[in-house]
Specification:
The chain has 17 helices and 12 strands. The longest helix is centred in the last third of the chain and has 23 residues. The chain binds NADPH dihydro-nicotinamide-adenine-dinucleotide phosphate and (2Z)-2-iminopentanedioic acid. The site of (2Z)-2-iminopentanedioic acid has 12 residues, from strand 3, helix 5 and helix 15.
Length: 444
């Protein structure tokens, strides 16, 4: 297999999908040598079967807004691979959603889920519906219309969706409610459910906490820890909030958070009380991050990302390609020692090269943000055994899983000069398990 040739062919077959090429290109380049050590892979064209999703479901979603206007959006579910378990992955509601973005996310999810050690395949879904500015009833009607189409393609042993951008506990609740009505069954088909109806404790916290547990493991390799470190966080949603919470618990100082309109910089640090304000602002009032600057009298920079600020650590937790090459160079020049991705593919390919050439600690999202889907996997286990575990137990397992993922990255990613290439480590470790399962299951 020649990575560049495979990529060129995929570009020709599937035109206009830049995010998909970006994610696939990164994986193929890093697994190329390992793949070619196994001639049996090439004999069964494993690479194409691995890069092209098993199935793409695409549908129109029709709903009525509060003014009585009939609206349409597109809905999708990309079932990428069920080689090691039922399809599993989040649902994203954002105006930018398109097949390229969902294909990259489903592809990444397959490797991420493999790394968790739990039996989950990879999928992603979503819609170009934007919840921003919509009433609660509009969101509910949209979720119901979305599931009215999707429900035939999912199930507890088939495909188990969860949240992502624009989809949190509220939206999962609405989708689960409609799914239950249509199937007349109470099953664990969604994760991230409310805690009163099968949701796991610590699922809301899991991606952010897991990201910081992974960061701790990376820092340990250089005799460092989070205590006393200054941290730039982007985003102000689920992942950003609980990343910030864990950094605070460990004695770090959070200087920035952001949303799609701009970022705030608080030189005194976002403390517990201020973080509670952000959680209320974002989760209950659905306001803008600028309101934080108005309330606490700190700096707000409109239409900008926080990467120009000076700090020890950067934790991107908003969206894909939110750190470009120049921003990466600025972070490195300002002395950043570690970048751990809470978001999926937040760094462009150029940014990744900058971090790696500077030999700083850098981990791609498919390893560092795997805590969310890991606890989703634990939610599936709890639903299957019809029991729920304590917060301590789930958190303990999450911590253990993140440490194991770190160990896998080190195993496959350590370079001759001692530098740990977490991109290579995560990709090879994730890939080998899926590849072995595919080989064992024949040509399907
Ligand atoms: P949320 O919707 O809760 O929050 C997203 C945050 O990012 C918001 O602050 C939002 O700002 C900002 N944002 C979204 N899109 C853009 C954009 N195009 N440009 C700038 N800012 C943007 O989502 P999550 O916190 O759940 O997800 C954040 C990231 O983490 C995503 O990459 C997601 O794929 C990834 N992830 C999520 C997991 C989960 O369990 N939820 C698990 C693993 C990864 P605004 O309010 O203005 O829209
Ligand atoms: O990107 C991700 O890992 C998620 N959005 C969570 C997926 C899940 O099934 O919990």
């Amino acid at each position: 297999m020649k990575a560049e040739e495979v990529l060129a062919q995929l570009k020709e077959r599937f035109p206009g999908e830049p995010e998909y090429y970006q994610a696939v290109g990164e994986v193929l380049r890093t697994i190329e040598d390992e793949y070619n050590r196994h001639p049996e892979f090439e004999e069964t064209n494993l690479v194409e079967r691995l890069c092209i999703p098993d199935r793409i479901v695409q549908f129109r979603v029709t709903w009525t807004d509060d003014a009585g206007r009939v609206r349409t959006n597109m809905g999708y579910r990309i079932q990428h691979s069920n080689a090691i378990g039922p399809y599993k992955g989040g649902i994203r509601f954002h105006a930018s959603v398109n097949p390229s973005i969902l294909k990259f996310l489903a592809f990444e999810q397959t490797f991420k889920n493999s790394l968790t050690t739990l039996p989950m395949g990879g999928a992603k879904g979503g819609s170009d519906f934007s919840p921003r500015g919509k009433s609660k009833n509009e969101v509910m009607r949209f979720c119901q219309a979305f599931v009215t189409e999707l429900w035939r393609n999912i199930g507890p042993d088939t495909d188990v969706p969860a949240g992502d951008i624009g989809v949190g506990g509220r939206e999962v609740g609405f989708m689960f409610g409609m799914y239950k009505k249509l199937t007349r069954e109470f099953t664990g088909t969604f994760t991230g459910k409310g805690r009163d109806f099968g949701g796991s404790l610590i699922r809301p916290e899991a991606t952010g906490y897991g990201n910081v547990y992974f960061l701790q493991e990376m820092l340990k390799t250089r005799g460092e820890d989070v205590k006393g470190k200054s941290v730039l966080i982007s985003g102000a949603g689920n992942v950003a909030q609980y990343t910030a919470e864990k950094v605070l618990q460990l004695g770090g100082k959070v200087l920035t958070m952001s949303d799609s309109d701009g970022y705030i910089y608080d030189p005194d640090g976002i403390d517990r009380e201020k973080l509670d304000y952000i959680m209320e602002l974002k989760n209950d009032y659905r306001g803008r991050i600028k309101e934080y600057a108005d309330k606490y009298g700190c700096k707000y920079v409109a239409k900008a990302r926080p990467w120009g600020e000076k700090a020890d650590i950067a934790l991107p937790c908003a969206t894909q390609n939110e750190i470009n090459g120049d921003e990466a160079r600025t972070l490195v020049a300002n002395g950043v020692i570690a970048v751990s991705e809470g978001a999926n593919m937040p760094s462009t390919a150029e940014a990744v090269s900058v971090f790696q050439e500077a030999r700083i600690l850098y981990c791609p999202g498919k390893a560092s943000n795997a805590g969310g889907v890991s606890v989703s996997g634990l939610e599936m286990s709890q639903n299957s055994e019809r029991l729920s575990w304590s917060a301590e137990e789930v958190d303990h397992r999450l911590h253990e899983i993140m440490c194991n993922i770190h160990a896998s990255c080190v195993k496959y990613g350590r370079q001759p000069d001692g530098y740990i290439d977490y991109v290579k480590g995560a990709n090879i470790a994730g890939f080998m398990k899926v590849a072995r399962a595919m080989m064992a299951q024949g040509i399907v």
